[in-house]
Amino acid sequence: MKFYIYTYGCAMNYSDSERIARLLTSLGYQQTDDEHSSDLYILTTCSVRQRGEDKVIGRVRQLHKERQEDPSRSHIRIALTGCMLHYGERALRRKMPGLDIVFDIKKLLEFPQ
């Protein structure tokens, strides 16, 4: 199984993405630089500016549309973590119906802030 991570925002988000990659690699997943060959597409988000949030929402919607239109991509799961989690999972799923997974990497791995 392959995963792709796209990171928005600050150095902390890049650090979180590296932690996610290490965790998934240790579980036998393979990281890819080709988003189209991934089985799991992870977005590490930033909510400092509205424009950043709009980009994330647009990207999730686009990925969901691609999944619906191309049967060969229907298996891809879209995951979201990062600063946008402050809105809560229910609100995020309303804004981005194609979203499959929402997780807080800091809670998941219990890393100190």
Set out the fold topology.
Blueprint: E1 2-7, H1 11-26, E2 30-31, E3 40-45, H2 50-69, E4 77-82, H3 89-95, E5 101-102, H4 105-109
Parallel strand pairs: 1-2, 1-3, 3-4, 4-5
Question: How many distinct helices?
Answer: 4
Task: Outline the biggest β-sheet.
Answer: 5 strands, parallel
The level of helicity is 40-55%
Radius of gyration from CA coordinates: 13 Å
Question: SSE order in H/E notation?
Answer: EHEEHEHEH
Shape: globular
Separation of the first and last Cα atoms? 30 Å
**Overall average pLDDT:** 92
The portion of residues forming beta strands comes to 15-25%
Indicate the structural class.
Answer: alpha/beta
Number of strands: 5
User: Largest sheet, order of strands side by side?
Assistant: 2-1-3-4-5
Contiguous uncertain segments of 5+ residues = none
Could you please describe the fold and organization of this structure?
- There is one protein chain.
- With 113 residues, the chain is α/β, with parallel strands linked by helices.
- 42% of the residues lie in helices and 19% in strands.
- It has four helices and five strands, in the order βαββαβαβα.
- It has helices at residues 11-26, 50-69, 89-95, 105-109; strands spanning 2-7, 30-31, 40-45, 77-82, 101-102.
- The protein has a five-stranded parallel beta sheet, sandwiched between helices.
- The longest helix is centred in the middle third of the chain and has 20 residues, at 50-69.
- The chain is globular, with a radius of gyration of 13 Å.
